[in-house]
Each structure stands twice: as structure tokens, then as C-alpha cells.
Design brief:
Layout lengths: L1 H15 L3 H5 L20 H11 L3 H8 L8 H7 L18 H9 L19 H7 L7 H22 L1
Helix pairs in contact: 4-8
Bound molecules: heme C (3 copies).
The site of one heme C (HEC) has 20 residues, from helix 3 and helix 5.
């Protein structure tokens, strides 16, 4: 039922944005997606709406489930163009409901854990206290990153052993 609802909502999202006129004048019932800067995606918005979660699929999942180390998209890179601002023109972090990644997710009740570890603003923006409050151990120290990487690699070799 939940899956069906999500699918329906996704369709609403997709259909809602097809006619160019509607994309500019989105109904108040649809999520208000912050405007982006830079070149649009060659594959188009519809493709990205549907597939962004797979394009960014984590090392963790790719290496463990498929033994694939190729990453198609950089999460940090998203905010070079998708840096949402508040009314005062300040770039917002994932803590704000105006953040790009929350525009649709809040609408469809999806929650992601990405910003426990990854930054949610472009390079150079100080995420400061609000980000630290999200997860107390932020920012990650070099040693923390090494232990995450070691953990991921350990998982990958276990999967490889299991396959033999
Ligand atoms: C070089 C700039 C740039 C980068 C980097 C970029 N985008 Fe985009 N993205 C755009 C533009 C421009 C649009 C079109 C926005 C519009 O139509 O209002 C867009 C549209 C989208 C859409 C559809 C939004 C809508 O209004 O329907 C999604 C989803 C999206 N991007 C996700 C991502 C993710 C996830 C990343 C990082 C992996 C990313 N983008 C990186 C520029 C970029
Ligand atoms: C244009 C709307 C839109 C934007 C903007 C958007 N998402 Fe999504 N995202 C969705 C929808 C809808 C789903 C749920 C799809 C489903 O469950 O079938 C989703 C699901 C996901 C998932 C999978 C979550 C899960 O539990 O399965 C990840 C990861 C994700 N998004 C990451 C991001 C990140 C990171 C950003 C910002 C860079 C972002 N999304 C921006 C619409 C969007
Ligand atoms: C437990 C911490 C942690 C969480 C949570 C996490 N990541 Fe990562 N992620 C890492 C580490 C560590 C790396 C490897 C370091 C690097 O390449 O910068 C990485 C690398 C990546 C990369 C490739 C590097 C890049 O340029 O972005 C992507 C894409 C990515 N993560 C996406 C995600 C997404 C999407 C989520 C949420 C669904 C997520 N991550 C959640 C720790 C995490």
C-alpha cells in the first residue's frame, strides 16, 4: 500500500512537471523544488527525478551487492548547482525544509541519512552548529573516514569470500 502510494506520488510528480507551462507555475499541491543554477542535466529532469537515488548509489551498496566500484555521481557536486537559499539569500543546510533534497522527500515522506556524513551545501559554506547538531560527531575526522572505508572494504571482501 505504501509502495503503491509512493508510486502514485511519484507519477503525480512526474506528470505534474511534463508541460513546460506547468513546470513554471506548479500547483501549490506539488512540491516547490528550489531553482538550480548551471547546465541542466543532459538526460532531462524526468530521468533525474526517477533515477537520482540509483545514480548516487553508495560505494557500500555497489561494492557489497554488485562488486562494482564505479560511482556515477558525486553527492557533494549536486550542491554546486542545487544550493537552495532562504528568504534572506543564505544557503540552507539539510536541516532546513527548504533544502533541495527535502523539497520532494518531505512531500513523499522519504528520509535519507546521507548528511550524517556528507555535507549538504557547496564547498566553502560553513555548515556550522546546525549541521553539528544533526549528528554530534560531525565533522568527521580523518581517522573516522579511514575506519568507515576499512569497514566498507571488509564488507566487500566478506561478500567476495561468500561468493567463492
Ligand atoms: C552543473 C549543475 C548541476 C549539477 C552538478 C547537478 N544538477 Fe541537478 N539540475 C540542474 C539544473 C539546471 C536542473 C533543472 C532545474 C529546473 O528545471 O528548474 C536540474 C534538475 C535536477 C532534478 C529535477 C528537478 C525538478 O525540478 O524536477 C533533480 C532531481 C536533480 N537535478 C538532481 C541532482 C542531483 C542528485 C545531483 C548530484 C548528483 C545534481 N542534480 C547535480 C543542474 C545541476
Ligand atoms: C524532484 C524531487 C526530488 C528531489 C529534488 C530529490 N529527490 Fe530523492 N527521491 C525522490 C522521490 C520521489 C523518492 C522516492 C522514490 C520511491 O520511493 O520510489 C526519492 C528517494 C531518494 C533516495 C532513496 C531513499 C530510500 O529510502 O529508498 C535517495 C538516497 C535520495 N532520494 C537522495 C536524494 C538526494 C541526496 C537529493 C538531493 C541531492 C534528492 N534525493 C533530491 C524525489 C526527489
Ligand atoms: C556513515 C557515513 C556515510 C553515510 C551515512 C553516507 N555516506 Fe556516502 N560516503 C561516505 C564515505 C566515507 C565516502 C567515501 C569518501 C569520499 O569518496 O569522499 C562516501 C562516498 C560517497 C559518494 C562518492 C563520492 C562523492 O563524490 O560524492 C557518493 C555519491 C555518496 N557517498 C553518496 C551518498 C548518499 C546518496 C548517501 C545517503 C543515501 C550517503 N552517501 C550516505 C560516507 C557516508
Amino acid at each position: 500500500m505504501i509502495l503503491f502510494l509512493r508510486f502514485t506520488l511519484l507519477c503525480v510528480l512526474l506528470i505534474g512537471a511534463v508541460p513546460a507551462a506547468m513546470a513554471q507555475d506548479r500547483s501549490a499541491l506539488l512540491p516547490d523544488i528550489p531553482a538550480a543554477t548551471g547546465e541542466p542535466h543532459a538526460e532531462g529532469n524526468e530521468y533525474w527525478r526517477r533515477n537520482h537515488m540509483d545514480l548516487m548509489r553508495h560505494d557500500r551498496d555497489l561494492t557489497m551487492r554488485e562488486g562494482n566500484r564505479k560511482i556515477d555521481a558525486s553527492l557533494k557536486g549536486c550542491f554546486d548547482c542545487h544550493a537552495a537559499k532562504d528568504g534572506e539569500g543564505t544557503i540552507v543546510t539539510y536541516q532546513s525544509e527548504q533544502h533541495f533534497c527535502r523539497a520532494c522527500h518531505d512531500y513523499v515522506a522519504v528520509k535519507v541519512d546521507c548528511f550524517m556524513c556528507h555535507r549538504s551545501t557547496p564547498d566553502g559554506v560553513d555548515e556550522g552548529a546546525p549541521h553539528a547538531a544533526l549528528v554530534p560527531q560531525i565533522p568527521l575526522k580523518e581517522t573516522d573516514i579511514q575506519s568507515v572505508v576499512a569497514y566498507l572494504q571488509q564488507g566487500a571482501s566478506k561478500t567476495a569470500e561468500a561468493k567463492q
